[in-house]
Amino acid sequence: MLKHYFEKYKQFIPLICIAFAILIIAIFAINMVTADHSMTINEPPVNALEVDDEAEEDTAPEPVIPDHVFVEVKGAVKNPGVFEVPADARVTNVLSMAVVLDSADLLTVNQSEKVRDEMVIYVPAAGEIEETALVNPVETAEEEVQVNINTASIDELTQLNGIGEKKAQLILDYRDENGLFMTKEDLMNISGIGEKTFDSLEPYITID
Predict the structure, then answer these.
(1) Residue 28, in any domain of the structure
(2) Does residue 2 belong to any structural domain of this protein?
(3) pLDDT at residue 62 tops 80
(4) The pLDDT of residue 138 is above 60
(5) Is 34 exposed, middle or buried (0-12, 13-18, 19+ CB in 10 A)?
(6) Cα-atom radius of gyration of the chain, to the nearest Å?
(7) Cα 115 to Cα 90: distance, rounded to the nearest angstrom
(8) Within this chain, do residues 40 and 76 fall inside the same structural domain, yes or no?
(9) Coiled-coil ranges per the record (predicted)?
């Protein structure tokens, strides 16, 4: 029976296949168009984004630059106090308003400096000295290094100003021949050491 129907309608099979293929293609095309349309609806227009950005930029607050600032002046001036001056003023402009005294020392004041709000300018008086607190001051006495001419070696004696190796050897020879120096002045018994040389050596030698 199936064979009978197949033989009867087989000439329509190609048409049915073509119609089915067209239907599949149509369904696929409709789905693609629907998807593109949905994406277009959800995506905001480029111009709208640009307008929003410009609107945000327009609404951003701009920093306020003051036209005037307040500066305080202290020290050796006739009119100490707070002055309202233009924001681009210099220290010299403020000092002219405060009237600097003749006793003022302006060497430590940078008069060309640009002022700023809440700035404090201090004008010291001439000869004014800032006191510095000293915590537990300790006085140390510098110890003078003295050379014992009765026990010193040649190397130690040559450390004295004006004593070379030759004079140092003469000092050692004197000790060997005459014994220890009894006084500092006995050093003048050495050849080449006179009163002038002794005076320069005396603070730096000892016999004890």
Answers:
(1) yes
(2) no
(3) no
(4) no
(5) exposed
(6) 54
(7) 5
(8) no
(9) none
Count of domains in the chain?
Answer: 3
- The model's pTM is 0.36
At 109-130, the pLDDT tens digits run 899 999 999 899 999 988 774 5
Structure tokens at 70: 């307040």
Domain residues for 39?
13-46
pLDDT digits (tens, 9 = 90+) for 79-105: 999 999 999 999 999 999 999 999 888
The answer to the question of residue 180 being in a domain is: yes
Q: How far apart are the first and last CA of the chain?
A: 152
Cα–Cα distance for residue pair 172/160, rounded to 1 Å: 15
Whether residue 119 sits in one domain with residue 74: yes
Q: CA 142 → CA 59, 145, 199, 203, 208, distances in Å?
A: 75, 9, 21, 14, 20
| Residue 172 covered by a domain | yes
| pLDDT exceeds 80 at position 44 | no
Q: Rounded mean pLDDT of 2-9? A: 59
Q: Which amino acid is at 45?
A: P
Residue matched to tokens 């070379």: 164
Query: Helix, strand, coil proportions of the chain in percent (round to 5)?
Result: 50, 15, 40
CATH number of the domain enclosing 199 = 1.10.150.320
Is the dihedral angle over the CA atoms 77, 80, 83, 87 positive or is it negative?
positive
